[in-house]
Amino acid sequence: MPNSKVALVCGAGGFIGSHLVRRLKSEGHWVRGVDLKYPDFSGTPADDFVIGDLREPTVWERILDRPFDEVYQLAADMGGAGYIFTGDNDAHIMHNSALINLNLLTLARERRVGRIFYSSSACIYPKHNQEDPESPNCAEHTAYPANPDSEYGWEKLFSERMYLAFNRNHGLDVKIARFHNIFGPEGPWTGGREKAPAAVCRKVAEVKNGGTVEIWGDGAQTRSFLYIDECLEGVSRLMNHPNFRGPVNIGSEEMVSINQLVALVADIAGKRVHIKHVEGPLGVRGRNSDNELSKRHLNWAASKPLRYGMERTYRWVKEQVKNPRAK
Ligand code: NAD
């Protein structure tokens, strides 16, 4: 097929990676996936799927055994607030993800690797700019002076810098996106690594009409959420841009409180629900994407309202609650 590329997707068994493999295949590319596991909820259309631990340099030797036009580095030790903010997983998160990124960059210098995409996170933004839930500031240039609210965010910031340093000093063609709360079907929905959209869908799907759902904190904390298909469009525009590297936000600017998110999901479900606020790990008070840079360079911003993605996600989570295939 003309314009067909050879792509490697690291983290291809995860939420975003498995959707990305599907998109790259639908565009006619040859795709190798690699992960510790196969996707949890459906088969993979990858041409080749390697089960391997990317902390091991020998696994990289094996998977970079041919030229790749594009490498997408999505593998990371991560999860929702219940995984990132308790403090219990900090050493694992920093050690495992940094090793994966170091291994890729070390070998990419020797092997024929074209463009490298690195998935950073909104978690790199300083805590002090996200204390007001009504007007958080997450424009790209506000990342410094740095003060992320988690070790997960510090590792992402370190790795961003490492990718940029390998670009400056060794000429690697890197692209960096900062994802803001990506959600959709076939993501974690229970078990501790799920994020707010899937967790809220599960809680609403499980409760009877008129029942009560528990929400961590007072629910006034704000976030924006980006549907998976929109995220992949942003990634594609960044990867196809001739010279803009980022880091650039890939997120939605439709900010809602967690209480509003519950109300939206309850409305989608056609249920009345009461909210009980309980103690739990929270993260920053407010966070929203700032898309000025992505509009300017990529001509990209989220195009659909939050409700569009939440309807699809709720439908899928409800099915899982009824008939769980994987957790
Ligand atoms: P995910 O946890 O579903 O996917 C990550 C995948 O990496 C998992 O399948 C995991 O098994 C794999 N992995 C972890 N350690 C590995 C190892 N040592 N060897 C091989 N594979 C390994 O997460 P996701 O939501 O798909 O996120 C993908 C990337 O985007 C991650 O780097 C994440 O930090 C970043 N990100 C995601 C979001 C979001 O909202 N989902 C937000 C910001 C950034």
Automatic annotation (TrEMBL):
Gene3D superfamilies: NAD(P)-binding Rossmann-like Domain, UDP-galactose 4-epimerase, domain 1. Keywords: NAD. The keyword Isomerase does not apply. InterPro entries: Epimerase_deHydtase, NAD(P)-bd_dom_sf. This is NAD-dependent dehydratase. Residues 7-251 form the NAD-dependent epimerase/dehydratase domain. It comes from Candidatus Liptonbacteria bacterium RIFCSPLOWO2_01_FULL_56_20.
